[in-house]
Amino acid sequence: MRALLIPGILGLLLGLTLRWTRLCSPVELRRALAFRVCHATRSLLEAVGAGMALTALLMWLAVIDVDGVVVLPLSAGALAGGAVFGVAVALAGFTPLTAFAGVSGRHGASALCTLAGCLAGTLLLPLLDGPLAALRSLPPHSATTLFRVTLDEPYLLGGGFLGQGCAGLLLMAIAACIPSNRAAAPEAPDESAPEMPPEPPALPPTEPLLCLPAPAADAPEETFVALLPGEEPLVVDTATDESPAEEAGAEDPPDAGEPPQDADPSSPTDPPDEA
Amino acid sequence: MRREHPLWRGFWLACLWAALLLPGGVDWLAAYRGERYALILAAAVAAGAGLAALIALLRRRQRMTRPRPMRMLTCFLYGAAMALACGMAGTGRILPALLEGSTGACAFAGTAAVSACLTARLTRQEVDA
Known about the structure:
A: mainly alpha, 3-stranded antiparallel β-sheet, B: 6 helices, 0% strand
């Protein structure tokens, strides 16, 4: 039971974190790989840098036994494998790890197919062991670790655990310097985030209001015709002054049976404007 | 730093990766071979991600997309290619080797990053319907 407990807890936490970092979303992973959205890119780079620094610290503290470190030598197989792996990850949107976490996402069917493919490829590996071993034996052969972190393996640079920790801190600094494009990074693009509607086309610049004297013969001289773009001509009569009664009538319209104010010629509030 | 900050989430992911190194690291291809430790870990990863997605699934009534058959076939082939690529490198323990500073793992990760960036840039983003 204890053997199940530790990997179970670590796996649960890893699955939660992969979901939070959005690395199990194929859309987000492809955007991160293309450096289109820097949100997941920052998380990934920070994780690698901090992981290198923490690993160096744990190895320096002898929490991780350096005798048990399995190093991977540089060979043509590693280079070719990396190229094939990168192309496959960019096209599928999953890695062999994130496909497990992507099963419960929106693209779960694609993740399941990727898992089935990984299973088939793993079953094929023993059959292709000869050619793959020949590929791994091809040059370039180089040192097997970047820094001196093991007792007997060759290394490329001096510095030991401190050098590896500084390399990790450098990656963390690079991740911190990447600008975060929040506008281009939706909260969860694979969680059925609604797409923003396309912006309406830009309106043509508004034409200035054109006021012309009334061309009609029956219109008085104080009448202007306002030509608005796309609207019917509006006749504006500047000669008529609004009386206080009209203003009051506009705010408080009369009843239907009551005659209008301008219908009464004896009304003192509506003097005829003869000018 | 806010809890939702990408750097904080990346640091939390790094802590988990370092914790996985304590029992000797995980070969993720071993999960596909049926080894017990890696298989339990992989199942727990799927359960944890499902737990995180459960609230979103319930709230937004999110439905799983149904990919086209060609997309399913290509995902299968890409998965097989990933496993074979790890076989070319010699192990599925790439990530622990990268954290421990192996030159082969660094070369693998570097070429993978370059080829993935080029592929993602050059190809149209294929999204399931």
